[in-house]
């Protein structure tokens, strides 16, 4: 644990009021303020038995100084746009973090470095644009991640969820994803449910490895198959992702068609004509030069 946190969280900080202190109201006030800064509950939030609820308070920033033993923290239904990088460093007991329905555009790197016990993370209904590599590194006990309803979420890094072997549920539905690298999912050996519906998937050749993988795991890995649709290319617009068969991707592996051969033959023909013409011109030029120099030699003589 971080030394800074140990210092703040020591037993000696639960202040026992002795009579001498009660005689001095200022001293008592000072102790109360000190105590509430360390173990107290943020203004307006409710705190009981390691559950801190700061939801629906129209907060624009995260509340400071939570109880150090906080297990469940809800900041849902606020207007929080950013989280300071070290915000969670002191709350190593944190199991559940609910950030649903805020205005988060990105998360600072290293936010979860001390969140070794975190198991449930809800980031749905935000404005996240991308998930970077190793975003959840060190939070390797994560079981459930909800990133749904982030309409601007266009990119999930291939290593975004690296190392999360405990992850059972991943919700990426209702985002702006057109592509997802197979590498994102391959390492998630414990995955049981995966939601990917409501995204504008581009069902081109790049989608084939992912679909193949999903199809093989579909029994173990329950997915919202009927909700996931292709947005592009036009031929398959609106088609359910999982209606695409091996046949649909035949073109991706196809060797050359007749048109390709004709094109190649045509290009070859044009190139050879061009080279013949060039040789011809060079020949004429050389011949002319030769004659001309011969003629001038004759003149000189
Ligand atoms: C903490 O959150 C989890 C998951 O949302 C919930 O199941 C659990 O009951 C909560 N704990 C308390 C004490 O509210
Ligand atoms: C988000 O929070 C606002 C209050 O801040 C609430 O009115 C709205 O219904 C919430 N939306 C969702 C999807 O939970
Ligand atoms: C989300 O981002 C978009 C564009 O970046 C912006 O127009 C919108 O107001 C944002 N919404 C919230 C709730 O912050």
Automatic annotation (TrEMBL):
Domain LRRNT: residue ranges: 40-72
Subcellular location: Cell membrane
Keyword line: Cell membrane, Disulfide bond, Ion channel, Ion transport, Leucine-rich repeat, Membrane, Repeat, Signal, Transmembrane, Transmembrane helix, Transport
Short name of any one Pfam family annotated for the protein: LRR_8
TM stretches of this protein: 261-284
Record's bilayer topology term: Single-pass membrane protein
SUPFAM superfamilies named among the record's database cross-references: L domain-like
Quaternary organization: Interacts with KCNMA1.
Name recorded for this polypeptide: Leucine rich repeat containing 55
Gene: LRRC55
